# Entry
Amino acid sequence: MATFVAKTARPTVPGDRSASGVIVVALLLILLAAGVFASLVTGPTGVGLPDLIAYFSGRSAEMSPQDLAIMEAVRLPRTALGILVGAGLGVSGAMMQGLFRNPLADPGIVGVTSGAAFAAVCAIVLGGTVLAPVQAFLGNQFLPIMAFAGGLANTFLLYAIATRNGQTSTTALILSGIAIGAMSAAATGLLIFIADDRALRDITFWSLGSLGGATYAKILATLPFILFVLVIIPFVARGLDALVLGDAAAFHMGIPVQRLKRWSIVAVAAACGATVAVAGSISFVGIVVPHLLRLAIGPSHRFLLPASAIGGSALLLFADSIARTVAAPAELPIGIITAILGAPVFLFLLLGRSGRAAMDGL
# Structure
């Protein structure tokens, strides 16, 4: 990855407004702090603002045992998992759009998410039978690693189909992604058909998306994959900026194009696989957040990638807070909330000038 560190001048990206990047990132951090606060105090019972102040000021003894248990066993792990999942979805969406040079690209659209979903359903349905030895060996990492492997397999298959003579066609990527996604969905449907009642309940709850099952074990299982995609940001940002000018131009600027694409693909598969495994299918975060931020700070990935991570975390925390309150004491799946919020925004962007330009590029 060291070759991705800038040895020459950073490429100038058309439409770049990086000067406003610092301001936008600062505003997003404030928004994320508000999302964390909302996530910690939102719920049908227990912890409120006075309890929150007491807990973080070291006066947790003033809280009732029930509120303290809710804070430590439910609210904190749920909030932490929301931050990780949102960051993974946001940055992987921005990275995929930079890689494909199309702001409409998304891990879900090109089949990465469906591959991770298929592998995760395999883990749920077959974990106690033919995959039992693998599950025993991997322990808590079984589901995330399976989902990561599924997303990675779909991504490399997609990349292999769309690449001819060293050139990768964006049109072929999108169309191949649709076909591979459909095949993965069919295979997932077959597994659901043979699943028992316990597995069906797990799959149904998981497929709608939720942070309700957040535990510290899930956080530890997810953390390495999300950290990987975040750590790689400084190493791929300049290369993704150069790719805007085309593969040939990026190569002549000293960017190892194929290596850049491989690292980016692995990072996207890692993030998507981990998030799908622990939170299910949560749509639109990976496409809407980078798209909106690109309007504010331009296409330069130096700010777009970290801003997408922060924005994705903030959006997911607010969506989770809404999911816990609109039908309280029941809880809506978070995937429904993100779809309700994200679909109209996506259609608005799609009908705009940048959306039409993106479709013309397919």
Summary: The chain has 16 helices and two strands. The first strand starts at residue 163 and ends at 164. Confidence is low (pLDDT under 50) at residues 2-6.
